[in-house]
Amino acid sequence: MKTNTSxxxxxxxxAALIEKIFFDLYKRGLTSLEFEREELKRAATTLKIQLxxxxxxxxxxxxxxxxxxxxxxxxxxxxxxxxxxLAGRSKYRFRLVKKNRIxxxxxxxxxxxxxxxxxxxxAYALDDEQALLAKVRYNRLLDVFLGITTSSLQNHLRTTVRxxxxxxxxxxxxxxxxxxxxxxxxxxxxxxxxxxxVVQTRxxxxxxxxxxxxxxxxxxxxxxxxSDRIAIFELTVEDDxxxxxxxxxxxxxxxxxxxxTEISTYR
Length: 267
Fold this sequence. Notes:
alpha/beta; 11 strands; 2 domains; three-stranded antiparallel beta sheet; eight-stranded mixed beta sheet; single chain; globular; 35% strand; 9 helices
């Protein structure tokens, strides 16, 4: 596990690399800047920065964990922000888009669910994301949230999307409702300081539309609020923006902690 000091050092290195690549391409008025992974090596040589073994971690960190460098943020128009998109195999794109943040609503009520997570799973989960996906799966939270029957088809699905390149879906479910309609349900899981990614949502939807055009795609994001509290969002794209269709917060508790009064209130 990274210490806070080493994590900060890595973050500073990554920011310097991204800043170098951005300003090598940027001209005032541009809203889209494409670059290839090889640019990371050239930037590192110029700046005399030691690259990590996993070059993709530089891009992943800037897409999901940390803010863009301050100098890059200063070029943003009011109400807009730079994001990094996949643009093909080992290709990426800085794109200026309307600012769009999906964060849990702190005023939303919490629904208690009896915790069915096997204790051995809780004991050996290797990271927040893995623990979160396991809790969602063992407690059938997607069934509860969506009101349909779902089954996990594959997790950490690495695949490709035309014009985007390689993506990874944290977990893919398929579902069926009482009318017999079928659904493809890509799930992104965020734990710790990771942010829910509108870019990842777009990628997941694009893959579902290409792979399962006959299924309704219902993209889901799940996020830890605490070790026993989980926020679930159903998302969609409207007017070229990712929007929240529905949000619920669940707390996993021992069955003995369920209160009949609360259950009656849920009804």
